[in-house]
Design brief:
111 residues, 7 helices, 2 strands
């Protein structure tokens, strides 16, 4: 077992929590999340899910969960990451510096 499931189970071995509680604690602590839909069908499920509010995850564990859940995007995402280097090529725009597009970095010609 590896990936996200392993990281969730890793925290459950450290204490009295279940993977669903770790997952809910992780999601609720993410910066962009303002609410969660938990989908409990029974009172017991609701109680277990609400107990996730008391679960504390270390920054290291949060980072591992973030790392293993990051989607592997295909084309054009890899090229889009270079957009600012292609557009602004080594200049500073609005106080933010941009790298030179790698294929052009060794070329002394500037337009």
């Amino acid at each position: 077992m590896q990936g996200l499931e392993y990281s969730l189970l890793e925290r459950t071995a450290e204490g009295e929590v279940i993977p669903a509680q770790v997952a809910l604690a992780w999601v609720s602590g993410r910066r962009a999340v303002t609410s969660m839909i938990i989908g409990a069908r029974t009172l017991r499920q609701l109680e277990v899910n609400m107990a996730a509010l008391d679960v504390q995850l270390s920054e290291d564990h949060r980072k591992r969960l973030d790392d293993v859940s990051e989607p592997q995007l295909s084309f054009p995402a890899s090229v889009n990451r270079l957009a600012s280097a292609m557009e602004f090529g080594g200049s500073t725009v609005d106080g933010r510096g941009h790298d030179v597009f790698p294929p052009l970095a060794g070329n002394p010609v500037r337009y």
